[in-house]
Design a protein that fits this description.
Blueprint lengths: L2 H12 L20 H11 L3 H4 L1 H9 L3 H25 L5 H9 L2 H30 L8 H15 L4 H32 L26 H6 L1 H8 L15 H10 L1 H19 L11 H9 L2 H35 L17 H11 L1 H8 L4 H32 L15 H19 L4 H24 L13 H4 L4
Helix pairs in contact: 2-9, 2-12, 5-11, 5-12, 5-13, 5-18, 5-19, 6-7, 6-18, 7-8, 7-15, 7-16, 7-17, 7-18, 7-20, 8-15, 8-17, 9-13, 9-15, 11-18, 14-15, 15-16, 18-19, 18-20, 19-20
Length: 494
């Protein structure tokens, strides 16, 4: 049995709708996302608020050692993405995270993962429009932050009333703007360092990475670096979004591995490279929380027009990330609906293959961000970052555990081997799990991040109670499916 046959079998068995039709979770979607669009969605998904805005707070806290934090976390992200890639090549489905949790851990875990990932993107959407409203203040501080957040939410909602092909095209150009801006910043920074032009030319030097209190220049040295890992991991959230596109990619067997294999150089260039240049051109002591280090760097260089351009770019980045959030929430709600684990009406697609109802529900809840910005305009970003981080990392945990269980089944001959095996697994996956749990512990130590851990048990209780109620009403939707393939069938693979 080939991986494609397994995909057909498990889609029928594991993603049947409440009507018993057996339709797979990707049924009805248009495969309108090509290689060029998938690549840029993968690149742009991880370049957003966490880097452009959140890095300012992290630099002020840890100094140049933030570079090391990004490098270590980036390695962990690569392990997670290769684990996801192994699962995607085994069975590419649009509801990937919840579907794999459902298969390898059980119906309850698939239910929790689907709803938690949906919540993550709703909260992230709030984060992104909050950041976007903050960027508007660069030009006009008189515009209320809540008003900008409201306008952006409405605009992005209507932007999702288009075909998936047009969505992919818009995201391609959004991502191109972000990538071009970072590369431009790096090239200008290299020019300042080597040629000495601009207002920062006299003070710009690579030695800025260690001459202002040392490389570990935070108040508590290495501890300060460790305490920024929450912010660092938040910056990488959404890198897994490429998995959600599996059901709408034209050739997922080719495009998804290519996108995943770009993770190391993406992190090396757009995170580590950009930070090395910025912190070499401008001493880390010049940065502060709540301000984009990219904008501040241009301002210190003496290019106010450049700072305005970068501010526009980071505004675009935030809106792009929120747009991706609206895209993914609609698909996740539909996957839950087709499995009988969500409201049935959310499973309907428009004639153009869009889960409009799920997107509408998600956008309406994102309006909570408008209220947050109205009530606490100064603290809105910090409030939602920690909760988004803990809910987003749940998807990573499920990916890693599902991959470990899949690998064991495949090695026993119960399932076909993936065409894109994760190198170093299971040890790399176990290391990534340990690292994530360490970050969660650090969040509990950090007074500002602890609120997310208070919210987690409440969300877990909601999930358990709702699961028991839905299971009682529709037991069939929560039955554990048999995904095992007989060894004799596996031997027929290719």
């Amino acid at each position: 049995m080939t991986s494609e046959q397994v995909a057909d079998r498990t889609a029928d068995a594991g993603t049947a709708g409440q009507d018993g039709s057996g339709q797979g979770a990707s049924e009805g979607y248009q495969r309108g996302l090509g290689n060029r669009q998938i690549q840029m969605i993968a690149i742009g998904g991880a370049i957003g608020t966490g880097l452009f805005l959140g890095a300012g707070k992290a630099i002020a806290k840890a100094g140049p050692s933030l570079i090391l934090a990004y490098a270590i976390a980036g390695l962990v992200i690569f392990f997670i993405m290769r684990a996801l890639g192994e699962l995607l090549m085994y069975r590419p489905v649009s509801g990937s995270f919840s579907d794999y949790a459902r298969e390898f851990l059980g119906p309850f875990w698939g239910y929790v993962t689907g709803w938690t990932y949906w919540l993550f993107w709703v909260v992230t959407g709030i984060t992104e429009v909050t950041a976007a409203a903050t960027y508007v203040h660069y030009w006009d501080k008189t515009i209320p932050q809540w008003l900008s957040a409201l306008a952006f939410t409405v605009i992005l909602y209507f932007a999702n009333l288009i075909s998936v092909k047009l969505f992919g095209e818009l995201e391609f150009w959004f991502s191109m703007v972000k990538v071009t801006a970072i590369i431009g910043m790096i090239l200008i920074g290299i020019g300042v360092l080597t040629l000495g032009f601009s207002d920062a030319g006299d003070t710009a030097a690579v030695s800025n990475l260690w001459s202002h209190g040392g490389f570990f220049a935070g108040d508590d040295g290495i501890v300060s670096m460790l305490m920024t890992l929450q912010i660092v991991m938040f910056a990488f959230l959404a890198v897994e979004l490429v998995g959600v596109t599996a059901g709408e990619a034209k050739d997922p067997k080719k495009t998804l591995p290519k996108a995943i294999n770009t993770v190391p150089w993406r992190i090396a260039v757009f995170y580590i490279g950009a930070l090395i240049i910025i912190l070499s051109v401008v001493p880390w002591t010049a940065f502060e929380a709540g301000k984009s280090p990219f904008v501040e760097a241009f301002a210190r260089i003496g290019l106010p027009a450049g700072a305005a351009i970068v501010n526009f770019v980071v505004l675009t980045a935030a809106l792009s990330s929120c747009n991706s959030g609206m895209y993914s929430t609609g698909r996740m709600l539909r996957d839950l609906s087709l499995n009988g684990q969500g409201p049935k009406f959310l499973g309907v697609l428009t004639k153009r293959g869009l889960p409009l109802r799920g997107t509408t529900v998600s956008a309406a809840l994102m309006l909570v961000g408008v209220w947050i910005n109205y009530q606490w305009p100064g603290e809105a970003f910090n409030y939602v970052v920690s909760f988004a981080t803990i809910s987003g990392m749940w998807a990573w945990i499920m990916i890693l555990i599902a991959q470990l269980r899949y690998r064991r089944k495949a090695d026993r001959g119960e399932l076909p081997q993936s065409e894109f095996r994760a190198p170093g697994a299971p040890w790399t996956s176990l290391f990534a799990l340990g690292f994530i749990f360490m970050v969660i512990v650090l969040m509990g130590i950090d007074e500002n991040s602890r609120v997310s851990l208070y919210c987690a048990p409440i969300w877990a209780a909601i999930m358990w109670v709702s699961y028991m109620i839905l299971k009682k009403r529709n037991p069939k939707a929560f039955e554990r499916k048999d995904y095992t393939v007989h060894a004799s069938e596996v031997e027929q693979t290719h």
